[in-house]
Fold this protein.
Amino acid sequence: MFRTQFALPLLAAGLLAVPARAADPKAAPDPAEVKKVIAKAYDFLKSKQDADGSFLKKFAGPGVSALVAASLLKAGYPVDDPVVAKALKALEESIKKDGGVYDRRFANYTTSLAIVTFHEANKGGKYDKIIADAAKFVRGVQDSNGTDDKELKFGGAGYDANSRPDTSNTAFFLEALVASGAKSDDPAFKKAITFLSKAQNLPGEYNPEAFATKATDDDKGGFVYNPFDQTDAKSEKRTTGGGLRSEGGMTYAGLKSFLYAGVGKDDKRVKAAIDWVKRHYTLTENPGMGQAGLFYYYHTFAKAMDALGEDVFTDAKGGKHPWRKELLEQLKKTQKDDGSWVNANKAFLEGSPELATAFAVLSLSYTAPGK
């Protein structure tokens, strides 16, 4: 099942956002060590690139191609690097007349990721118009969810203008806005945060949804993938008490979205999300999902931690975590001899090493100390 959790990677991949970078080099791994791990991954990705410059185009349209290009650019590879240049060319060929960058599916996801990718590659304003047109396209996806802020769908973004919104798609959309040059006072940010607040297991003024009032102590403060699951009796995300399970990848996606949109650290929603992270800090699984979506989890973890700006994160038990070093060590431990990563759990296409490897490289790009 393709859902926005891979769904492509997309993301914006956050790619960008508001990098804090380690102020204390002692809390970060040796840059040479990071570079060595990424270089092995680069060789693997180069070997898997199709003749037209794309990656997994048959299954994911332009999404994985954008993710690979963005991850390598974030890791320091130049725009004219052969792998990057070919991937960018393939991405350009997927631009539609309506400004979107997509194939048959996941139009918001792949366009949002493309915006971030073109932003990373935008030397001399080469992609200014493409970014502006693509931003207009994804704004249309958000606008398709109406003007009534009392409706659950309001402010969110889904796969396209005809699908219900979810946390992952909305987070990627928001990152795309940042990459397009939008400021935090843009009305689209406020609308996106309205939706994301209703996807958090935190009942109150920001979330009147019934599922939030039924959250378990373990789930409180975290984010759910799809708040509409609360009325789906068949959903595996529902808890025995009628609530919805919080997930690691979604909670980090929600947290970074709040921070990117200018929601302060003293806001109750941000505090609750951080408290959830403190209780569930781990790099061995995607909390609430086990091994499913693990590499997606790593990249939202890295981006959220980077935006949070704490070189050493303290968990609920007082444990100190130099998270950049821990992330590198975890990825070093699981990297294959050929330089790739792959998830034994094949959910969300992470059984494809091209996707898992691109996510891993993107995650590693956030581990370097400040430049």
